User: What shape does this take?
Amino acid sequence: MNSDKRRAVVLLSGGLDSTTVLAIAREEGYETYALSFRYGQRHTEELDAAKKVAAELGAAQHVIADINLAVFGGSALTDDALAVPHHESVNDVSADEIPITYVPARNTIFLSFALAWAETLGSSDVFVGVNAMDYSGYPDCRPEYIEAYERMANLATKAGVEGTQQLKIHTPLIELTKAQTIQRGLDLGVDYSWTHSCYDPVDGRACETCDSCLLRGRGFAELGLVDPSFSSADA
Assistant: This one.
């Protein structure tokens, strides 16, 4: 590890957005510390992808933290009693209402873990792949939420009180469309076949009809590409 580099904690789900953010943090010269979660989600494909991405993009360390949000339920991603919605077209995905795939307080919980790790690393930088453009209506992806969390975080730690940490939450994708995010990653050498974003995979493959797959697929299509996680990419 290069001690001359600034350290940054990067929230890494293994999906398209967080992978792009890890590549951006690396390109900006940070020594990256990737943080993923086993939080009671339905499947592990995303975590398998996160391990691959962290290795390929040279993270100094990759930690998978264990928490269990499934004990609370309330989301189709953590509660087997709730079905993941599927649609015939991306035009059926609405940002006008918060979908059942929203996991209560997930980003607040994840950022709190990132804040704790950043403090122990002597880091003031956390990167997260939230997006306010091509997203599914999640309240914890909005700029005003990130700004409020950052203000709170700087009141919350010993390092902050003592003046050795001034936390900055980096959101490089927050105003990008999915297509713009993909192009940014491609420019940085990201291979999106490493990634997995599907909410409801079938035999380890993307279902291609959940909100996440449809939004991601539209991004590739706008660039004249086929999502490498889709079965049509194998043709």
Summary: The radius of gyration is 17 Å. The domain at 7-223 is CATH 3.40.50.620 (Rossmann fold). Residues 106-121 form the longest helix (16 residues).
